[in-house]
Amino acid sequence: DDYEVGVDISQGDYNVKDCRPPELPEPPSDFTAEDLRLREVLADFYFRHKADNLANINLITKRYRGRSVSHLWAQLALKYKVDAYNVVELLARTLYESAPFEYGDEHQAESLETRLAELQTAMLGSMEVPEDRAELLRR
Predict the structure, then answer these.
(1) What is the average pLDDT score of the chain?
(2) Nearest to residue 99, comparing CAs of 133, 137, 71, 59?
(3) Which of 121, 45, 51, 37 is nearest to 76 (CA)?
(4) Which of 60, 57, 61 minimizes the C-alpha distance to 21?
(5) Contact between 1 and 31 (Cβ < 8 Å)
(6) Which residues does 56 contact at the CB level (< 8 Å), separation at least 6?
(7) Residues 108, 91 contacting (CB under 8 angstroms)
């Protein structure tokens, strides 16, 4: 038969490289909607730039969520030479509305976040009564 090569590949001594990107681990149950959005954008970024980091996506998200997201994108922009327009777009898609303060002093930032949460809670309670809503608007 002309098509027989005479090589038994089942016993070949060659390396087969798995070229599939790592699978994304399931997100932790304590991730907020903002965490999940960061995780999704970050996964897309790493899929294009360094797929090996997809396995660590939850750890990276936990480390940089909240006020640190701008630092994450600054570091990634430098490391992967991402132009300013694209990194600003990535940052805009992943900013945390729940963490609007970025201070070097961790204590001051936490204090501001606590006060903001108190004000938001007070406002939500007040928003249920029409007279209270009107008062909030006057302030």
Answers:
(1) 79
(2) 71
(3) 45
(4) 57
(5) no
(6) none
(7) no
Encode pLDDT of 66-106 as tens digits: 888 999 999 999 999 999 999 999 999 998 887 766 666 77
pLDDT at 30 over 60: yes
What is the full DSSP assignment across 71-101? Answer: HHHHHHHHHHT--HHHHHHHHHHH--TT---
The 10 Å Cβ neighbour count of residue 39 is: 21
Q: Does the global pTM surpass 0.70?
A: no
H or E element at residue 42: helix 33-49
**What are the structure tokens assigned to 132, written together?**
């209270």
| pLDDT above 90 for 64 | yes
Cα 25–89–65 angle (5° rounding)?
Answer: 45
* pLDDT above 70 coverage of the chain, percent: 68
